[in-house]
Amino acid sequence: MRIRFKTFGCRLNQAESARFAADFTAAGWSVAPFAAPADVVVIHGCAVTRIAEQKCLHLARGIKRAARQAGESEPFVVLVGCVVEADAARREVAGVDLLVARGDKERLAEIVRARLGAAMSDRSDPTAAPRRKRALLKVQDGCDFFCSYCIVPHTRGAPVSRPWRTVLDEARALAQAGFAELVVAGCNVACYRDGARGLADLIAAMAAIDEVQRIRLGSIEPSTSEREIVDLMAVSPKLCRHLHLPLQSGDAATLRRMGRRYTPEEYAATVQDAARRMPDLGLGTDIIAGFPGETDEAFERTRQFVAALPFNNLHVFPYSERPGTPAAAFADAVPSAVRKARARTLIRLREEQRQAFARQFVGRPVETLIEGIGKDGRGHGWSGQYLDCRVAGVGRAEIGRIVAFTPDGADGSVLCGAVKAEGC
User: Fold this and answer.
1) How many CA atoms lie within 13 A of 236 on its CB side?
2) Model confidence pLDDT, tens digit, residues 105-121
3) CA atoms within 13 A of residue 224's CA, in its CB half-sphere
4) What is the dihedral of CA 6, 10, 11, 12, to 10 degrees?
5) Half-sphere CA count of 242, side-chain side, radius 13 A
6) How far is Cα of residue 201 from the mean position of the Cα atoms in its chain?
7) Taking the CB of residue 277, how many other CB atoms lie within 10 A of it?
8) Once rounded to an integer, what is the mean pLDDT over residues 174-191?
């Protein structure tokens, strides 16, 4: 049996899709590229915005039609993920053979095989499926913060953590399988809890595994465990110095309307402390531009706030109404053109800050995970600080390995150098 996957959205979705693929592979199925013919197609959908939801549903409706037009047999189409939970009225999707609800997705392979009468297997191997050069490791799911713009608590449910020992066993198995970097993923990873042990305890235990080479954290919600993570990051050589703390706005009144759990002053204090202890810290954040009620003055406070802190990676989004959230009904909507203009302003600022940050590493040793070889013959990958790197003097044998090189220049925010003397 051949199966193919299309995953929309966040790293957690990607981590779950990797697990789905591993389960099918362990049962003897073949995972095919998405453009290839297959017996089963799994669409792992996202619903964080209405646009994302529409893309998922549009693809789901067109899978069988595309197969007919290509002269292929129609595949068995499965829809799973947040898109299934977001709107009960849209669950009956034309062209979809199976909708898998949130409570059943851990049994996706079992459910699909049972529907098709395919052979069962009791073998489970998290390393069995083809993956990227880094492995995504899911540690928890769910969120109960209920920010006013976010549908995720409704589609993912309350926080649930995977057992301590299960996570560590999987981390060891992935490292032993050759994955040089483990990316810790979750819906709200800072909510991880197993008894008295939290996220920082889990990361410290993962770092103590001999085979684990490098650990990268996903987004950490402010006002949770970021202080403990900074303490660990400052002393652990295995933990990437890359901290992503979603800000969303630098204006106090806007943060309150968003339902965020911190003030700009509290956020700034955390960032300044982290940067003082780790001057080479890669600091990322998320910003929503044009949230309802955001005045010109409020946006300017956000712009100044961002400019004053050492951010080097900004994810900027013009506000998009998500039906089913309180913010979608808020008064004082900002015109769409203004939202986009504000986003462009922040994107320009992002590029300036990111390029300045990259230039700090020219002439200094940098470690990067080589993920492939480009058409120019150079290796490409990401540093621990999440800077794009182009490395001469490496070959296919280095793909999937962490190599050290000294950048001799920066092309924008891309570090260029070589592991040998010839440069790039």
Assistant:
1) 27
2) 999 999 999 998 865 45
3) 21
4) -90
5) 19
6) 21
7) 13
8) 95
Rounded Cα–Cα distance for residues 311 and 342 (Å): 17
Query: How far is residue 203's CA from residue 30's CA, in Å, rounded to a whole number?
Result: 33
Contact status, residue 29 vs residue 39, Cβ threshold 8 Å: no
Specify the amino acid at residue 55.
K
3-class state of residue 252 by DSSP: helix
What is the per-residue pLDDT across 295-308, written as a single tens digit (0 to 9) for each?
999 999 999 999 99
Give CA–CA dist 153/221, Å, rounded. Answer: 14
DSSP state of 336: H
Spacing of C-alpha 297 from chain mean position = 32
Taking the CA of residue 371 as centre, how many other CA atoms within 13 Å lie in the half-sphere pointing to its CB? 14
SS3 call for 197: strand
List, in order, residues 6 or more apart from 143 with CB less than 8 Å away.
150, 152, 153, 156, 158, 159, 187, 188, 191
- Considering Cα of 347, then 46, then 91, then 68, what sign does the dihedral take? positive
Phi, psi of 172 (to 5 degrees): -65, -40
CA separation for the pair 287, 191 (Å, rounded): 21
Cβ–Cβ < 8 Å for 132, 371: yes
User: What is the pLDDT at residue 89?
Assistant: 45
Structural contact between residues 287 and 259, judged by C-beta atoms closer than 8 angstroms: no
Token pair 């309307």 is at which residue?
A: 257
Task: Copy the structure tokens of residue 130.
Answer: 């083809």
